[in-house]
Amino acid sequence: MHIKAESPLTKQQIKKQNIMPARIRLQRHGKKNQAIFHIVVADGRAPRDGKFIEKLGTYNPQTQPAQIELNIDSAVRWLKNGAEPSTTARRILSYKGALLKRHLQIGVEKGAISQEVADMRFNQWLQEKEAKISKAASEIESGRREVKKARLEAEKKVNENKAAAVAAKRQAAAEAEAAAKAEAEAAATNESNEESVPAAE
Known about the structure:
201 residues; disordered N terminus; single chain; CATH 3.30.1320.10; alpha+beta
């Protein structure tokens, strides 16, 4: 069943309803067995697929590897303001680097590192992460090709065995027919010989 998304709440609605605490979580969309999820910020008391404050991205687990789109800066801003991510949302935020960026920003705020250093570390991590994702995607594609190749080879082997069985059956039938024909010819020859022998006086 397709679930229609609710419209985001306006700032006036948020202020009027005094929505706290905010929670980062997944909102289900899509058909049965083909679910995709929106990553949203919502009132912690709101229903899972109800109204939300802001959409941060999307998560599609139907692909290999899963496709994740995330506004990292918005996610970091909400984390800074105290939004609590759900267990799954936290894994996604960690996977995309939002938790790391928030950790680095805390260091900048405390004066432990400069903004330039924080940006450099995050960009370095991002490049390494993208390389790992690219490698994983390549390995998955390679695995798919190997599986397909093995399946085709198995099908070829089955077809070869079937063809060999049919050929053997035809060969046996041909040999049986030839043997029967030879036996018939031999019998006919014997009868002809018996008829040509003169009767004893």
